[in-house]
Fold each of these.
Amino acid sequence: MKKVIGLLILLITLSCAGISVFAAPEDVPDFIRVGISTGSVGDSYEASSSEGFALYEYGEGDIIERAYFPEITNIVIKSDEEYINIYPQGEEDMPPICSYNNASKYFIGSTDMSEGIISVSGKNYRGGVMLYNSSGDTVRFINVINLEKYLYGVLPKEMSSSYPLEALKAQAVAARSFSMGNINRHNSLGYDICNTQCCQVYGGVSSEVAKCSSAVNETEGMVAYYAGKPVSCYYSANNGGYIESSKDIWGTEVGYLQTKKDDYNPEYNWTAEFTTEKLSSILKEAGYSIGTVTGINILKKTEGGSVTSIEFVGTNGKATIDKSKIRSLLGSSTVKSLKFSITKSSLSSEASPAKAYVKGVSGSATEKILSGISVVDKNGNVITLDANSVVAQANTGKTTIQGSAASSGEEGIDGIVISGKGYGHCIGMSQMGAKAMAEEGFTYDEILKYYYIGITVE
Ligand SMILES: [Zn+2]
C-alpha cells in the first residue's frame, strides 16, 4: 500500500511540474485480462453468479463499476455485429438490461470481483468475462480477473504441486513478475496475456490446488525486479546442469538471464531416435529439399552445451538449422533440449544399438542407448569406451564383450540417435533445481536470486 501511495504522490508531483507520465509499469496492477478462447459474432453464453452481476469498465490494471444488478443471478451474454447485450435468462426477447460496444473495455462480472466466481457455459471463472470484437467476425472471450487470483490458476499448471512450498513460492513470484512484465502483450486482441505456453498456462478455478494458492498468498505482491523493471522470469523444467544465457539461445542480451554452471539442477537424460527416412520427410515437409539424409553435423555449441547450429547433409544438398528451429523441426517433446550429441547409427533391427536400463546409486532407472562398449558409473552416466572390445572380469571368470557395430561412414547411415540432457530452453530458473534448492533449505527469494542474476525481490 505504501508503494501505491508513494507512487500517487510522485505522479501528482510530476503532473504539477507539467511532465506527462504514463501509468507506471512497475506498479502491481489489481486486475489483468486473460485471453481464453475465440468465438464468432452471434455467439451467446449463459452465465450465473450467486452474488449477482455488475457491469464494469477496465482501464490500466484497474476496474470501475458502471452498473449494478445484485438481484440478477442468471444472465445470457450475447454478441451481435456492434454490441454485447446482457439479458436475464429467459428474457432474451425483451430489451437487454445493458448493451455496450463490442470493441469497448466494458465487461460483465460478479458483484464481488475479488472473491466472486461466475459460471459460464459450465466453466467457473473468478471475476468477470469480456467479449471483445478484435477483427471481422472474431470475438475474443476474455477473463478479467484479480492478478493474485489469476496466479491461483497458473501455478498448478506451471509447476507440480508436489514440489516443496519454497519452490512453489519462487514460481509464484516468477509468474507474477512475468505477468507484470507482459501487460498489454496481446492488446491488439483485447487482452494482456493468453492462457497458453505463449505466455503462461492458465487453467482457471478447476485447476486450483490449495498448496499452490498458499504459495501465491504467502508471496502476495512480491515481484522480481532488475534495473527497476519487472523481470520476465523465463524458466525450464531442467537445464542439464548449466544455465544458458538469453543472448546465446535467443540472440538478445538480457542482464539477468546469464550463463553459469548450476550446482543444484539434478541430472535428467533422454534419447531420441530418427530413421533417415523420417528425417528426410521432416526436412522435406519443412521446405528443405535436400533429398535423402546421408549425414548430420553439429556446427556450433554454446558455452553451456546447447547446440545452436546443425547441418543435415542429403543426396540433393545441405540444410543448416539454427537455434530454436532445431527443436521445433524435430519435435520439442522428442528432442527435449538443445543439449545433445548425435550418434550416427544403423537402426536396422540386426544392428540396432544395444539398449539398457541403467540405475545409479540414487534416482530411477533410465533407458540408455549403448553404442560400442559402454560402462556405467555410480551416478548412472554412460561412458562409451574408445575400443571395440573389452574384457570383463567377474568372480566366476573372464568374459570378452564385443561392441555393437559402429556407424559405417562409407555406406551412409540409416538413422541417428540423439542423446541429451535437460528439458526446455535451459534459460533462467530450472524448476527441478528450484525443487532441489528448496529441499536443501533455501528460501524462495534465494532460489530466484540464484537463477536470475542481479535481481531484487520486493
Ligand atoms: Zn501469449
Note: The mean pLDDT is 85.
Amino acid sequence: MSNYIDLVPSSVSLIESLRNMGYSIETAIADIIDNSITAGADYVNIRFAWNSGDPWLAVIDDGSGMTKNELIDAMRFGSMNPLESRTIHDLGRFGLGMKTASFSQCRHLTVVSKKDGQISCCEWNLDKLSQADNIGWKLGIVDLATIRKRNILNSVYDESLAHFDNATIIFWENIDRAKEQVPLAKQESHFNALIDDTRKHLELVFHRYLSPDPGRKKVTITINGDELTAFNPFNPRNLATQELAEQKIVLEGETITVQPYVLPHHNKVSRQEYDQYSGEGGYLHNQGFYVYRNRRLIIKGTWFRLIKKEELNKLIRVRVDIPNSLDHLWKIDVKKSHAYPPESIKNELRQVIRKIEISGRKVYRQRGQRLLNNIKTPVWNRIALGGKIFYQINREHQLVKELLNTVPAQQKALVENLITTFESSFPVDMFFNDIASIPEQVESPKFSEKDLEILLDIFIQSWVSTGTPQSELPEKLLSTDPFASNQDITRKILEQRGYDCE
Ligand SMILES: Nc1ncnc2c1ncn2[C@@H]1O[C@H](COP(=O)(O)OP(=O)(O)OP(=O)(O)O)[C@@H](O)[C@H]1O
Ligand SMILES: [Mg+2]
C-alpha cells in the first residue's frame, strides 16, 4: 500500500509560469467576456485608463453575479474539471480563464460581484503571494470598507455595481505586460494601440452576439462608453456574396454545421468595402474555415492543412459551428484561440472544400470567360497546349495584319521578331504577384479619345475597302480590341459620327 502526501504547488512559481501561456491582451479580454456572456449579461463595459503610467482595466457586466461562495470557488485555479459537461450556452471549459487571462496581463486581479444585492469581493495579488504572511494560496477577501479606500476601484464600483442587483467587475491593476519592452515615452500610445486592436478583435470574435440572428439575444459591448460594431467576416449583406448550400456533419450524435461563403470579387464592391473585408493579412491569408463554438469565434482563416492556401480560393470563407459538447474532440485550448478538427471528420471537411472550391474559382473564371465572350477579336490570345498556357498576340488582328501588309518586305521579319519578343518577355511572375496581392490596383493603360479615334479610322478604312457594309461596322468594332475594352469612348465616337450602336 502506498502512502500519500499533500504536495501543494508553489503558488508564485505556478502563476508566474501560467502568465506565459501565450495570451495577447485581445485574447485575454475575450476570455473574460466569455464569462460575462455565459453569466447572461446584456451589457459588457470595458473601462480602462493609462493613469499616468499605472494603467488599470475593468470589465463590468450585468450578468448573474456571484455569491460569496461562488466567487471564492471562481477564484480557484481549476474551478471546474474540463471533463465535466457544461450547459449548452457555457463558453467556459477549463475553470482557468478568468485567472490565466488576467495574470497574462496584470499582477493584481480583484473581482467584485453582486448577487441579489449582496456584494462580495476577492483578490489575487501576485506581489503579495510571496510575502511572509501570505505564502501559499491565500485568497484575499476584501470588504466594502476596503473597496471604498481604493480610489479607482471605488469609482468604478460607484459608476456601475452600485446601480445593479446582479453584476460583476473584473479589475486589473499593475498591468505590466502592455509596457514590457516598450520605451517609456511610447508606452501610453502603445497601450492605446493595444486597446484599438482589442476592439477589432472583439468586433470579430463576438460579432454574432453584437449583431445576433433573429431570435437570439443581443449583447452590447462598449469600450470606455463607445459601442462596438459587429464585424461579420462573410459580408452576407452584400448581394454579390454567394451563400452556398449548408452542410451538416453528425459526430457522436452532435451536429456540426458548415456554411460556405464566396465573398464578392473586387469588381463587385467598392474599394473601401473590398479592403474592409480583406481582414488583417489580406484575402489570401484569411481564406478558410472560421470555427465558432457556441457562436463565439475560436479560430479563423485556416484549412487545417487539408489544402494549401491558394490565390484562386482566396474569396472562400467557411463558417463551422461546433457545440461545446464536442470540445474534447476539437482540441480547444485554454485561450479559446485554437481548435483542430477530429480525424473522423477531416474527410468530410475535405469534401466540403472540394465542392466549394469549384464555386470560388467560378467567380474568377466567369470573369475571364466573360471577357473572352465579349471580345471576338482580341489582341491577346490565350492558348492552352500540352498542359501549358501561353499568351500570344493575335496575328489575325486587323492592326497586326495591317502593319505586316504595309511594312516594306525587308522589315517584315523585324516586326515579327518584335512581336515574338513582346510575347516571350511578358512579365508573368510580376503580373501574378500584383494580381495576387493588389488586384484592384492592376489596370491596363487607357487609350485617349484622340488616339482611339485615329485607330478607329484605320480600321474603318481597311474594312470598308474590303467590302464591309457601313451598318456592320459598329458591331464589328465593338467586339474587336482595343475598342471592345474601351466600349464607352468607342460608342461615343461612333454615335457622334451618326452610327447606330444599339
Ligand atoms: N462575470 C462573471 N459573472 C458570473 N460568474 C462568473 C463571471 N466570471 C467568472 N464567473 C464564474 O467563475 C467561474 C470560473 O471562471 P473561469 O473563466 O476561470 O473558468 P471557466 O469559465 O469555468 O472556464 P474557462 O477556463 O474555459 O474559461 C466560471 O465558471 C463562473 O462560474
Ligand atoms: Mg471562462
Note: DSSP finds 19 helices and 16 strands in the chain.
